[in-house]
Structure formats: C-alpha cells, structure tokens
From TrEMBL:
GO terms for molecular function: dTDP-4-dehydrorhamnose reductase activity. This is dTDP-4-dehydrorhamnose reductase. It comes from Halobellus ruber. The gene is rfbD. Residues 1-276 form the RmlD-like substrate binding domain. Keywords: Oxidoreductase.
C-alpha cells in the first residue's frame, strides 16, 4: 500500500509511519514546523496548490490526515487560523485525494458532542453540538473530508503515547521530578492509545473501509483517574496527583463534562479492540 501521512511528526502520524514502514508499505509523510526522522516533506495543508502537488507527485492509495490546529484554548482566540487549518485545509486534502483517486482517512474529535452525562455513551448517529470553537472547526473538517469520494472519519478522544509530546509525556516528566500535578476530575472521556489508533488507520486503509467511526479506548475515566493509573503503573507516588475541578482550573475554552464514545461499531468492523490505559501504560513504561 502507498500511504501518505499528513502530520507525520505528530503523535498519531509518527505511529502510523513507524507501523506502516515496518509492514513494508511505501510511506511518505509531512511535517509543518518540526522535521523529524519520520517526515520527509514540509507541508502546510492550508496551501491548496502545494497540498495538491505533493499528493499528486506521490500518487498514494491512502492518505491519513492527522494534521490539525488543536491547541483547544488558542482556537478560541486564533479563530482564523483554526478555521483555515481544520476546515479549509482539510477541504484541500479531500480535493487532492479525489484527484489522486486515494482513500482519505480523517481524524476528528469527541469534542463534537456537548458532553452531557445523561447522553453517554455517544454513538455515531447522536446529535452533534460542538462544545467549543476547536470542535466547530473539526466538525467543519468532517464535512470537508466528505468531499472525498472514498472517506473514513474517525473520532478519537484524549490520544496518548510516547512518540511525541502529549499529556502523558508531560505528566511522566512531572512525576519523575516529584512535582505535584493538579488534574481535572470532572472531565470524563475514553482515552485512546496512539499505537492502537495508528493500527486501525492502517487496517481501514488496507481494507478500504469507509464511513464514520468512533475510535476510542474501551474505558471511560476522568483525566485525574487516568493520571493516577499512569502514576501507579509507572511506579510513581500517586499522592503527587491532586484533583481539581474544571471551574477551579479555569480553561479558556469550554470542555465536555463527559464525552464517552461508544466505539463498538469500529471494534466489530475491524475485529480489534483498543487497549485500556493500564495495559497501554504497562507497554510504554
Ligand atoms: N491529541 C488528542 O488528544 C486528540 C484528541 C481527539 C482528536 N485529536 C485529533 O487527532 C489528530 C492527531 O492528533 P495528534 O495528537 O497526533 O496531533 P499532534 O501530535 O499535535 O500532531 C499534529 C501534526 O499536524 C501537523 N500540522 C499542524 N498544522 C498543520 C498544517 N497547517 N498543515 C500540515 N500539517 C500540520 C504538525 O506538524 P509539526 O509538528 O511539524 O508542526 C503535526 O505533525 C488531530 O487531527 C486532532 O485534532 C487529537
């Protein structure tokens, strides 16, 4: 399979590149600001012409678009940039996918749901109500991705791993330095292990499976509980992890209270179940 990964320097993208290369796929991947060992092309997907030309040159079977402006709080103030990357940039990729006759896999988010604890777990047919501006642009990205003739849209949640900077690498650094961490205990979701998400992208691409799938880990927990499990499994003092409410924490953008997704349609479609945080942390420690 010829696979083109947009955002190959990122957490999910670098896992896809690594797994695809070890399977023997022909891979090209892109970075924006951070060139890494896994990327060989610089690309800003807001540039329609360059997006078209790098994709046409490579002529992929599958494109995975992991690229996003996803600093959730910054999206509230840098609205033009958020829209141009997450919505308009995705439209550029979808248009280029059609020109190349490629299958597009687009990563969206659980934040497209309002996060009402009475509605969970959300299924693919549930009402969309983006919770903040980031989510609004990602939902616009979903609609843009649908321009592609062959498209798969995945909705993961709190993606973690070790391949590049993310919540878990930050928390491990703090725990290692014996610093206290205050973590919100009233934002619940189903954390998603990046290597599992990468595996699923490759499998869906290989099997040409299109459609909309929730694609999260199997366990629902608060950020605080997630961090306590991390500390426990990795042998750190769990008392360093302190709970705080969202109100006390004071984030710029609203967050869903509980955005637990039902990912059983995906699990059934590909006969694969994501790992829970405890087993994932066992693997990465
Ligand atoms: N992380 C989460 O918890 C989470 C949760 C739900 C959904 N998602 C979605 O999942 C996807 C992957 O997330 P991730 O954690 O792997 O993200 P990440 O680690 O931040 O990686 C993002 C990648 O996109 C690239 N990029 C950023 N802006 C770009 C642009 N304008 N044009 C081309 N490339 C650009 C970055 O390049 P440089 O690094 O070189 O600048 C990087 O390679 C995103 O679409 C995100 O919205 C993430």
């Amino acid at each position: 399979m010829r696979i083109f990964v947009i955002g190959g320097s990122g957490l999910v993208g670098s896992n896809i590149v690594e797994q695809a290369e070890s399977r023997g796929d022909t891979v090209r991947s892109t970075h924006l600001d951070t060139q890494t060992e896994t990327t060989d092309i610089d690309l800003d997907k807001t540039d329609a012409g360059r997006t078209q030309s790098v994709i046409t040159d490579f002529d992929p079977d599958v494109i995975v678009d992991t690229a996003a402006f996803h600093a959730v709080d910054d999206c509230e103030t840098k609205r033009n940039r958020a829209w141009s990357v997450n919505a308009a940039g995705t439209r550029n990729v979808a248009t280029a996918a059609n020109e190349a006759g490629a299958h597009l896999i687009y990563l969206s988010t659980d934040y497209v749901f309002p996060g009402d604890p009475e509605e969970i777990p959300y299924t693919e047919s549930d009402r969309i109500q983006p919770v903040n501006y980031y989510a609004e642009t990602k939902y616009a990205g979903e609609r843009a991705a649908r321009i592609a003739d062959e498209v798969t849209i995945l909705r993961p949640s709190v993606i973690y791993g070790t391949a590049s900077q993310n919540f878990v690498t930050w928390a491990l650094g703090e725990l290692e330095d014996s610093n206290e961490l205050t973590i919100v205990n009233d934002q619940i979701s189903s954390p998603t292990y990046a290597p599992d998400l990468a595996k699923v992208c490759l499998r869906l691409g290989e099997e040409s499976q299109t459609g909309l799938y929730h694609s999260t880990g199997p366990e629902s927990m608060s950020r605080y509980e997630f961090t306590v499990v991390l500390a426990e499994v990795c042998g750190y003092d769990t008392d360093l992890v302190k709970p705080i409410t969202t109100e006390e924490f004071g984030q710029e953008a609203p967050r869903p209270t509980d955005s637990t997704l039902d990912s059983s349609t995906l699990y059934d479609a590909i006969d694969y179940e994501f790992r829970d945080p405890e087993s994932a942390f066992e693997e990465l420690r």
